[in-house]
Write a structure and sequence with these properties.
The protein is α/β, with parallel strands linked by helices. The strands form 3 sheets. The protein has a 6-stranded mixed β-sheet, sandwiched between helices. It has a 3-stranded mixed β-sheet with strand order 3-9-8, sandwiched between helices. Helix 1 packs parallel to helix 7. The protein contains 13 helices and 12 strands.
Length: about 350
């Protein structure tokens, strides 16, 4: 399951957003810094309009969407990389997530304290990014010093590539860059994963605007990151409504989708994820894999043993599955494809795996 960490300065709306997207009141949203100490965790179902029509065709007993786990991480402050404001503890929580949703404040409210006493989204982002960069500098320097120390004798030749990579990364960090901005070979990518660097993680800037959505927001916060504009206060109001009431409220505001929907879609695009589906009488279900995953890897998401026993897969586009009446009738249309181990799974595929058990 994808894990996204919600980070930002204190009092920018992180906990309000977390409570809204998870439809809970788990995170305390108070008007003072560090009201969140231990991270709050909530699992959010990913809205998928394809599931119900598939379930109707298959007469499924239940529908199971895929999900994202959101982690509400306490507010960071300048000096976090040196331990300020419980910084080291908070940074360790960020290392455990797959993506970072950085909330920056663009709304003005005299009743909500800003830690820097001014509303400046770009400055908010710069403070957080600097702390993530400083933490990564410490990590890379430690690994680089160790690599140079151990690169003696016969081991020196094997360490050359690693040292060159670390020096390139260290130099980029010193210039204020995020390491996600650099390009890496497959071998280098594996080595970078071992470092668990904070600025290697995909970043989404969540700009917390007011109800009008007319706040002045910088065109760009930094390279290699996505952005969405969300009114956390509005999302909190929507969370208190039934799905039908929320749709009507959105319609009255002239909005087509919730901020949560936008955040999830952006997360999937940023992480290069696709969703395939399975559908039958027991259940219709959504599954997530990385774009480019082949059929056996997708089967492994369902059960780890399936990758070894994979034989073949019946594959059909979800719209054709619905249009032509499901598995029992799709074979007559020529739309059903029999795919082997090299098939690359596409978003919206309905798949039935043939497994040797």
């Amino acid at each position: 399951m994808l894990r996204a960490g919600i980070v930002g300065l204190p009092n920018v709306g992180k906990s309000t957003l977390f409570n809204a997207v998870t439809r809970t009141r788990k995170a305390e949203a108070a008007n003072y810094p560090f009201c969140t100490i231990d991270p709050n965790i909530g699992v959010v179902e990913v809205p998928d309009e394809r599931l119900k029509p598939l379930a109707d065709i298959s007469k499924s007993q239940k529908i199971i969407p895929t999900a994202i786990e959101f982690v509400d991480i306490a507010g960071l402050v300048a000096g976090a990389s040196k331990g300020e404001g419980l910084g080291n503890q908070f940074l360790s929580h960020i290392r455990e997530v797959d993506a970072i949703a950085q909330v920056v404040r663009a709304f003005k409210d005299d009743n909500v304290i800003h830690v820097n006493n001014k509303v400046d989204p770009k400055n908010d982002a710069d403070v957080i990014n600097m702390e993530l960069t400083l933490a990564d500098l410490q990590t890379v320097k430690k690994r680089l010093d160790s690599a140079k120390k151990n690169a003696k004798g016969a081991a020196a030749k094997g360490a050359e590539k690693s040292i060159a990579l670390l020096e390139r990364v260290y130099g980029h960090l010193q210039n204020g860059g995020a390491v996600r901005e650099l390009e890496y070979s497959d071998e280098e990518t594996e080595e970078m994963r071992e470092l668990h660097l904070l600025t290697m993680k995909p970043m989404i800037y969540v700009v917390n605007v007011d109800e009008t959505g007319k706040a002045s927001v910088p065109a760009e916060f930094g390279a290699g990151a996505a952005r969405v504009e969300i009114c956390a206060k509005l999302e909190a109001e929507l969370a208190d409504l039934s799905p039908d009431e929320a749709k009507e409220y959105l319609k009255s505001l002239g909005l087509a989708e919730t901020g949560l929907d936008k955040l999830i879609k952006t997360s999937y695009q940023l992480l290069n994820l696709v969703t395939f589906l399975t559908s039958g009488e027991p259940e219709t279900r959504a599954w997530t894999v990385r774009a480019g995953a082949k059929a056996p890897e997708a089967a492994c998401v369902i059960h780890t043993d399936f990758i070894k026993g994979f034989i073949k897969a019946d594959v059909v586009n979800w719209q054709d599955f619905v249009k032509f009446g499901g598995w029992s009738k799709i074979k007559e249309t020529g739309k059903l494809r029999l795919e082997g181990k090299d098939y690359v799974v596409r978003d919206g595929d309905v798949i039935y795996f043939h497994i040797n058990t």
